[in-house]
Amino acid sequence: MSEKIPLYKEIETCYQVIDRPIIPKSILNNIKQKPREYQIKALQNFIFYMEQKMYKNIKSKHLLFHMATGSGKTNVIASSILYLYEKGYRDFVFFVNTTNIITKTKDNLANSSANKYLFGKKIIINYKQVKINEIKNNFNDSNDNCINIMFCTTHKIHSALETHVSENGLTYTQFEKRKIVLIADEAHHLNSELKKKKTLEDKKNNASWGLTTNNILKQNDENILLEFTATAEISAKKEILEHYSDKTIFNYTFNEFNKDGFSKNVSLVHSGLPEKQRVLQAIMISEYRQIVAKQHANLSLKPVVMFKNPKGVKAVDKSLIAFNHMIENLTVNDIDEVFSLSDELEDIIGLKNFVGKNISGFVKQLKYSFRKNVCVKIYSTSQDKEKTLKLLNNLEDEHNTTRVIFAVNVLNEGWDVLNLFDIVKLDETNASAKSTTSEAQLIGRGARYFPYEHKNTPKYQRKFDDDLKNPLRLLESMHFYSKYDNEYIAKLKTALNQFGITNSKKTYQLKLKEEFLKEEYYKRGVIFVNDRVKIDKAKTIQKIEDYNIQDYKNRNEEIDNRSYELDLLEEENEDKENKPYTTTCKLANFDKDLVHFAMNKIPFYNFNNLLKLFPNLKTKNEFIEKDDYLGSVEFVVHSTKKIDKLNDEFKIRFTIDLLEDIKQQIIKNNITYRGTKTFYAKKVIEKLSKDKTLSRQDKHKNNEIDIKEDWYAYEKHYGTSEEVSFVQFFKGQVSKLKEKYSFVKLIRNERDFHIYTFDKNMNGNRFEPDYILILKDKFDNKYQIFIEPKGGDRLESDKWKNEFLKDITKSTDSLFLTGKNNKFEGSEYENDGYKILGLPFYNDKTKNLFVSAFDKLLF
Q1: Residue 110 and residue 121: Cα distance in Å, rounded?
Q2: Is the N end or the C end of the chain the one with fewer CB atoms within 10 Å?
């Protein structure tokens, strides 16, 4: 019997003939943080499942989102809630196995004043404001105009329905009468039914809360169960794989998450040093992180250290007291000792070079940074656990001074933290599977990437995987410190590999060939790249539509303006949804004071901010009256009763909803930068690295690129399968190229050069093409061609790069090439027969498109 294709693969196969769904505005306009590419793919799979004929009529839908720790499952949860609300769902039950996850998720989904609240300040769906209504006891408190969410533990929901039924509590009847969305976080705990045998008596008595969940789901054909977890073990256990094969709507492992650069790199630091020296190593490197962040990125970073001691409360208290005593009595000799015992750790060596002879100053710095009142302890039985969890869920806040956490096993799941960089295991090593799995989970939480901006690089992804000597790599790494024990380290590595947290990476040298270094092109040649400039909004923004907002002028509104009398002894049968009357009104005809009142409710529309967005605007009244702004907005009001005159309350509501909608779209589409069509000459000898240390994954060990001929600039190195394929293709074209061109040179670009898109909608996105091809023909015309091999898994997400490469070729005659600012002005390099071109992506499966463009462009 052949293995069944998982649901997500089945759906993604459909995309070969059916377009991916468009993410609706109900999500994009109401989520604070724009969904990442993989989150968009997860939502597209979900929307496809909900709307395509082959799936939409499935009863009691049960789906699993299998997504890596740190990949933003809660953002997908919030987006799914918005989508389902638009589809008519109003009631949601969020449940999980531990109360600490409930605490942080309430902040994420229901506390609009929390820093990690995921929705916008106002949720606007179909031009109506939607509020979050937290359900405390039962769904009798549900409001049809709200997103109603009950937050509870699995134990609580099972107890309420099965073991401790109360008059005002939840009942199965409530789930029969309304369609419910069940959202299970850390849902691998539901798998307990699949991991161990249950007696028939257990199942008969619904002894498992997993069965309770299933019972709720089956109460109504329209109920939906959405499971979210990072550790479903769907590939490790056959029973789980079979159970979830037709339910896994999206699969994004930590290994993929890590490979895509969204996590920190993990280093295991194990030594035979006494505990005091291991603790000092951690806080010294932590302090060095803060120094590096300020010195090299002008970034105020507060790196956090965790000390893990699973032996119990007394052990944690004792460890905290010992730590405070050590810091208070820290000496120069203590630091010197660590320097001398840790000379194999690059970060300690870097710190030592930075500190120099001023060790006493560094001691004072450590005493202040790790003083007693920045230390926190937490364990499951502590009376202030809830308060401490709130503190630890907001470690990134600038007013949160915490630098040190002492903990027993309470933070392994559901803890969102980005600035945890160092974890120190204080107890003796324990090589049991349970212990190492627990520690691997904790490391996974610390491996979440700390986002920061640096020289136009991606904020949320690692920046220096291919620049191993860059000091800022320290901000992209986390350290786990433990006592040296071969068996423990081996088992911990196994556990980490199972979670995909560590990749087997090795380093190699990318070297320019000696003969290339002697060539005239290397010594005197140039490569042209452009820059990006700030957009002059006074020239580019003349109206609201210039922010790519096309649909704001025609607004449909609904009003129920009849009165009803309900006889409590009779059923309510009258249809209140029918709204047969239509009234049209223009915002420009509203009283100006009324519109000013609505604008004043939203700080975004204060005049100083409007001037930044619309520099040509003269007054607020012009914004209200002129057709280029709000003057042409027309409201079509559908009502249950004829309207003679629209009252001010409705006018204000309509205006506020309109302004909120425009605000969200401006924020989303506000373009600040654009790449220029001026390309500047950069000296090859100054910009091209002679020798660079790179890392590679083991899966690339057979992907060698080893070209002996002079047309390739580098010695043997490694690449992706797509890069290897491209170079082999190019090798077959060289003899033909040399018939037409007197100079042929293919150069790999390992972050030496970048260009910026000049598409008006792309905000000057930075792009580092993998290859640059330099050609010179027999008439001394010179050509520089950007080339990018691209794997199939990136064709969609990097589509903008492909369009940019095509744009370069289309615009080649309008590009201006200059040596200005590089002392080349007036030289042979300024507009001297150069042409800048781009080829479409090279991909094995779409190779014919590349070959066609290659032949057309170069031959």
Answers
A1: 11
A2: N
pLDDT tens for each residue of 133-146: 998 878 888 899 99
Distance in angstroms (rounded) separating the CA atoms of residues 55 and 61:
9
Round to whole Å and give the CA distance between 333 and 511: 43
Residues 437-448 pLDDT 10s = 777 777 877 888
Buried b (16+ CB within 10 A) or exposed e, 698-721: eebeebebebeeebbbbbebbbbe
d(CA 807, CA 643): 53
Q: Check residue 162 and report its DSSP letter.
A: I
- If we measure between CA atoms, which residue out of 722, 739, 745, 740 comes closest to residue 777? 740
pLDDT in tens, 49-63: 999 988 988 999 999
CA distance 111 to 844: 49
| Rounded distance between C-alpha atoms, residue 669 and residue 661, angstroms | 12
Average pLDDT of the residues in 761-789: 92
Which tokens hold the place of 324? 């405070």
The Cα–Cα gap between 135 and 116 comes to 21
- Cα separation of 387 and 38, whole Å? 34
Q: ∠ CA(425), CA(429), CA(434), 5° rounding?
A: 95
Q: Match 């040649």 to its residue by tokens.
A: 525
Beta strands (DSSP E) in 791-831 are 816-818
- Taking CA atoms, 123 is separated from 29, 87, 425, 657, in Å, by 8, 15, 44, 10
- Rounded Cα gap, residues 660 and 641, in angstroms: 27
Please compute Rg for the chain using Cα positions: 31
Separation between Cα atoms, residue 725 and residue 702, nearest integer Å: 13
CA distance 93 to 157: 10
Could you give phi then psi for residue 76, rounded to 5 degrees? -70, -40
Give the distance, in angstroms, between the CA of residue 553 and the centroid of all CA atoms in the same chain: 33
- C-beta separation of 270 from 482 below 8 A: yes
Could you tell me which residues come within 8 angstroms of residue 450 by beta carbon, excluding any fewer than 6 positions away? 264, 301, 418, 419, 421, 475
Q: Residue 818 in contact with residue 679, Cβ under 8 Å?
A: yes
817/407 Cα distance (integer angstroms): 60
Which of 319, 122, 121, 84 lies closest to 223, judged by CA? 84
How far is the C-alpha of 537 from the C-alpha of 49, rounded, in Å? 42
CA distances from 161 to 101, 148, 151, 182, 212 (A): 22, 19, 15, 15, 8
- Each as own residue / partner, the long-range contacts of residues 371-375 (CB below 8 Å, 24 or more positions apart, any chain) are 371/327, 372/324, 372/327, 372/328, 373/401, 374/401, 374/402, 374/403, 374/404, 375/320, 375/323, 375/324, 375/402, 375/403, 375/404, 375/405, 375/406
* Whether the Cβ atoms of residue 161 and residue 214 lie closer than 8 Å to each other: no
Which residues, in sequence order, are CB contacts of 462 under 8 Å at separation 6+? 261, 262, 263, 264, 265, 449, 476
In degrees rounded to 5, what are phi and psi of residue 826? 80, 0
Find the mean pLDDT for residues 187-192. 56
Q: What is the pLDDT of residue 797?
A: 78
For residue 199, the model assigns a pLDDT of 43
Q: Edge-to-edge, what's the strand order for the sheet holding 420-425? A: 265-271, 477-483, 420-425, 304-308, 404-407, 375-378
Q: Which of 835, 833, 785 is nearest to 805 (CA)?
A: 785
CA pair distance 223, 596, nearest whole angstrom: 44
Strand partners, 481: 269, 424
The secondary structure of 721-745 as a DSSP string is HHHHHHHHHHHTTHHHHHHHEEEEE
The per-residue pLDDT for 109 is 93
What digits encode the pLDDT tens for the residues 497-542?
766 676 556 678 889 999 999 999 999 999 999 998 988 888 889 9
Q: What's the pTM?
A: 0.66
Residue identified by tokens 């089956």 is: 218
